[in-house]
From TrEMBL:
Transmembrane segments: none
Keywords carried by this UniProt record: Glycosyltransferase, Transferase
Descriptive protein name: Glycosyltransferase family 36
Lineage: Bacteria, Bacillati, Bacillota, Clostridia, Eubacteriales
Cited InterPro entries: 6-hairpin_glycosidase_sf, 6hp_glycosidase-like_sf, GH65_N, GH94_catalytic, GH94_Enzymes, Glyco_hydrolase_94_b-supersand
A Pfam family it matches: Glyco_hydro_94
Keyword Metal-binding listed: no
Glycosyl hydrolase 94 catalytic domain segment(s): 485-563, 617-807
MF-aspect GO terms: glycosyltransferase activity
BP GO terms, sorted: carbohydrate metabolic process
Annotated ranges, domain Glycosyl hydrolase 94 supersandwich: 82-294
């Protein structure tokens, strides 16, 4: 099996025989809601949301099991029927034989082209698929059939795309009854389906979506007949792989304007027989999609169904996505640079698909979770910072005044939905992520005033950090916290951050670490709600508190802010005696007293605290957490390895270390103790040794999430029910592995950080084992296969790590600083590496020049040139923001940085 080959520097690649790999899918989508997945045989699906599937929803297993794919048949006179997508019983049966057809995939961002050659039939098909980056809700397909024999061939072409047209729920729930809702009509160009009602969890409602398939020849000729009912198309005893009407080349009798009701539908569209001369080709254009009326399909037919329009639209679509992906890298490893192009694209995909809607992601109903919302902003900050301020501000509206947050996130930015199902689940890590994103935003832009912007708090039934209900509240009072005078209460962003961190500080378990609640980052640690503790995230909250103090210091020193205004209720979290920090019960009481005060509303009174006092208070808390963890959680096992324990289980027992069932070590606790600087430098060294010994496995891409616990540890979480080496139970889970790299780089361990990234990249790039298209998957399973490709928070973290740690291109209160941590082996033949990136709305090509071939640690930045002119800096290598914003915004600027 061959690897894919990149054919340019924009990630475009070619892959031979792609269908000889299972479970592969590729995303095609646009920003008005069309979300498709497509496989090498054009299987996959196409939908707008959970209730609006045009093609039947597919999970991983359906990718080989489902016959209901996008198909295009060619009946060759004198030989028989051939599927241009390879989905016929005969072609499938030949896949492992010498008669296997020659196939090749060529794909780039949001387009997919598969070529298939049949010696037996003497024809070749080339099918290009994409979803236009316009406001049209369609997926387009161009099919070119070439006669590769030396004799003319008479062919009968047939489009055959089964139309599901309903909610994903109906796959099992009322699959048949919902077909009775179908109202099917043939038009000049195709088949449309307008179900009367929708049946799903929302109840029975009038349906407003029209689904359809329209097609024409490349020069706009209409079809000559249709066969829109599945059972007539396949014939008695037939199937989508052996459709009788095609195999026997039966005439499609139905003409435009016909109506049918109550059956499963198919866009089976017949074109006139044509003779293709030797080496000549015929082209067909197909559009599948969603409309508000039949007219939308007529318009699509007029606008899109010709080859010129198709080619133009494809070109515009490609250019559109290229504009969006505005970061690029040049290192010695060109393959890595190209692979990163796909990683750059992944956060965009996650914004479109949420965490659902690609075949492996067969859960959820679209949308993203709280954690993902914030982390996806990390990449946006690097790629499209223009709307980020508003986005961050809106997102803070999801914070509850008890420091937890809304978990049902609406479609519109800043829309959070009250939990009416009464499900209480608190993820204890949630409060820590918004700060990381906010800090990055402030550093990139210098917009420290953002901390003083005001935003409301989210309100629903849940109070007391998931422990109580506010029975005085109902939805009619709205989703915002009010004052006792019923006015909407707004606090600063700084106050929101403090609420999140201070409540967490007091929310401790028996060992005085932060309680695990329903889980932390690891969704699979969900069975220790009563006594579980997450030391891992305690350390992150601690590190954040320290960083909040730093920002406050900046507000005070540079912005001359003397006092901070906070809701009076917060005082109890600030003005206590530090001795109580050691007493679990006291802490819990303080938290309770705060939560009780804001259970239903707040007084609306503001109290003022001096910056100095506030800084001292939160620094005290940060220090306390750090020392507490250092003192109690550093473990050394009998083999002499040391690392930080990250968890306590529901029996309040320490999780990591030696046990009768083997050594237990988890990566998460290491990542955040390193990142938060809880781990001292020598401890980082010990952790690296332990992680290399217990967690590193090159065969599966590097650092595993945990060792094998050899136990279904039901007092900690469902992850232990998963087979070891899969998903949250000990797979190389990209997100945490990349955060480990990030933490190591942050602490100056560049070689070790590089190792974590390089192992995962090299593994993914080794197609023979990873069997995924370029990009980073959510995790790598025990066999080495990349799983849950594309939609993963690790992409954002990887971009962030490569840009701001590896290349060391960082914002520092709005100025651009350079702290390169590039290893000598990464510099190219000309001793250079480069990164092209947008900073302060200017496109910058930043080139590091290492002529003396020094290794990281030995070099430092000696000279900086902006567009060829030397820029003098004092001390830290940095360029003042004002200078960058004075540069012309319409051109790309080159910044050369000489290392010596
Ligand atoms: C997924 C979720 C993420 C969660 C993680 C671990 O990771 O999206 O919120 O923290 O699993 O349970 P991702 O797919 O983002 O890599």
């Amino acid at each position: 099996m061959s690897n894919y080959k990149f054919i340019n520097d924009k990630g475009t690649f070619k892959l031979k025989s792609p269908e000889n790999n299972s479970y592969m899918y590729f995303p095609l989508a646009n920003e008005v809601g069309v979300m498709s997945s497509i496989t090498p045989t054009l299987n996959g699906d196409c939908k707008m949301d959970q209730n609006t599937f045009l093609l039947a929803p597919v999970s991983g297993e359906d990718l080989h099991n489902n016959k209901s794919s996008r198909n295009f048949w060619v009946y060759v006179d004198g030989i028989g029927a051939w599927s241009a997508t390879g989905v016929s019983a005969i072609q499938q049966a030949e896949v492992f034989s010498e008669d296997k057809e020659e196939t090749e995939l060529e794909a780039g961002v949001m387009w997919h082209k598969i070529t298939r050659k049949s010696k037996k039939f003497g024809i070749k098909s080339e099918i290009t698929s994409f979803v236009p980056a316009t406001d049209e809700k369609i997926e387009l397909m161009k099919v070119t059939i070439t006669n590769i024999s030396n004799k003319p061939k008479k062919i009968t072409p047939t489009v055959a795309i089964p139309l599901y047209c309903r909610s994903a729920d109906n796959l099992r729930d009322h699959r048949h009854v919902t077909s009775l809702l179908n109202r099917i009509e043939t038009t000049e160009y195709g088949v449309i389906v307008n179900p009367t009602l929708t049946f799903d969890e929302r109840g029975h409602k009038r349906n407003t979506v029209v689904y359809g398939v329209v097609a024409s020849t490349g020069n706009g000729e209409k079809p000559i007949g249709f066969c829109p009912i599945v059972e007539e198309y396949i014939g008695e005893g037939g199937s989508f792989e052996i459709p009788k009407s095609v195999l026997l080349n039966e005439k499609f009798e139905i003409q435009k304007g016909a109506q049918r009701e109550g059956y499963e539908a198919i866009g089976a569209i017949r074109f006139e027989d044509t003779v293709i001369e030797a080496n000549a080709a015929n082209t067909y254009i197909v559009a599948i999609g969603f409309g508000a009326s039949k007219g939308d399909f007529d318009n699509a037919a007029i606008n899109e169904l010709n080859e010129t329009a198709f080619d133009k639209c494809l070109e515009e679509t490609t250019a559109y996505w290229e504009r969006k992906i505005n970061i690029s890298y040049k290192t010695k490893d060109k393959q890595f640079d190209n692979w990163m192009h796909w990683v750059n694209f992944q956060p965009i995909l996650r914004r479109i698909y949420g965490c659902s809607f690609l075949p492996h992601h067969d859960y959820g109903k679209g949308g993203r979770g709280w954690r993902d919302l914030w982390q996806d902003c990390l990449a946006l900050l690097a790629m499209d910072p223009s709307n980020v301020r508003k986005m961050l501000l809106d997102n803070f509206g999801g914070v509850r005044i008890d420091g937890t947050n809304a978990t049902i996130i609406g479609k519109k930015q800043g829309e959070f939905i009250a939990d009416r199902n009464n499900i209480v689940r608190v993820w204890m890590d949630h409060g820590a992520w918004p700060f990381l994103t906010t800090k990055l935003y402030i550093e990139q832009t210098g917009d420290i005033d953002f901390l003083l912007e005001k935003q409301s708090y989210f309100k629903d039934l849940q109070v007391g950090r998931g422990t109580q209900k506010d029975n005085l509240w109902d939805l009619s009072q709205g989703n915002k916290v009010r004052t006792q005078n019923s006015e909407e209460y707004k606090g600063t962003i700084l106050e929101h951050l403090l609420v999140q961190h201070l409540t967490a500080f007091y929310d401790v378990g028996e060992h005085n670490n932060l309680r695990l609640h329903g889980a932390d980052w690891n969704d699979g640690l969900d069975m220790a709600d009563e006594k579980g503790e997450s030391v891992a995230f305690s350390s992150l909250y601690g590190g954040n508190l320290q960083d909040i103090a730093e920002l406050l210091r900046y507000l005070k020193d540079v912005k001359k802010v003397k006092n901070i205004e906070l809701a009076e209720e917060l005082q109890v979290l600030l003005t206590d005696n530090v001795k109580v920090y050691d007493i679990v019960e006291e802490k819990q009481n303080i938290l309770k007293s705060y939560c009780d005060k804001c259970k239903h509303d707040v007084k609306g009174k503001i109290s003022s605290i001096s910056c100095d006092e506030l800084i001292a208070d939160i620094e005290g808390k940060a220090k306390w957490i750090k020392e507490h963890i250092q003192k109690n959680e550093w473990i050394t096992n009998k083999e002499g390895y040391s690392w930080y324990n990250g968890y306590y289980d529901n029996n309040a027992r320490r999780v990591e270390g030696d046990t009768e069932l083997g050594t237990r070590m988890m990566l998460t606790g290491q990542v955040f103790t390193i990142m938060s600087k809880t781990a001292a430098e020598t401890q980082v060294e010990s952790i690296i040794k332990s992680a290399d010994n217990y967690l590193y496995d090159k065969a599966v891409g590097g650092y595993r999430l945990n060792t094998n616990f050899n136990e279904v540890k039901s007092d900690l979480g469902r992850m232990f029910g998963f087979a070891y080496g899969h998903k949250e139970n000990g797979a190389v889970f990209s997100h945490m592995a990349i955060m480990y790299a990030n933490a190591l780089y942050q602490r100056g361990f560049a070689k070790e950080g590089f190792k974590a990234i390089d192992t995962i990249y090299s593994h993914c790039n080794n197609f023979e084992v990873s069997r995924i298209y370029p990009g980073i998957p959510e995790y790598i399973n025990e066999k080495g296969r990349g799983m849950y490709h594309y939609l993963t928070g690790s992409a954002s973290w990887l971009i962030l790590t490569v840009v701001s740690e590896m290349f060391g291109v960082k914002g520092q209160m709005g100025n651009l600083v350079f702290v390169p941590k590039i290893l000598l082996q990464q510099f190219d033949e000309e001793n250079k590496v480069a990164i092209e990136i947008n900073f302060a709305e200017r496109m910058l090509n930043i080139v590091y020049i290492n002529e003396s071939k020094k290794e990281y640690g030995d070099y430092s930045v000696k000279e900086i040139y902006i567009n060829g002119e030397e820029y003098k800096f004092n001390g830290q290598p940095a360029i003042n923001r004002n200078l960058i914003t004075s540069l012309d915004e319409n051109i790309r600027h080159t910044i050369e940085i000489v290392l010596k």
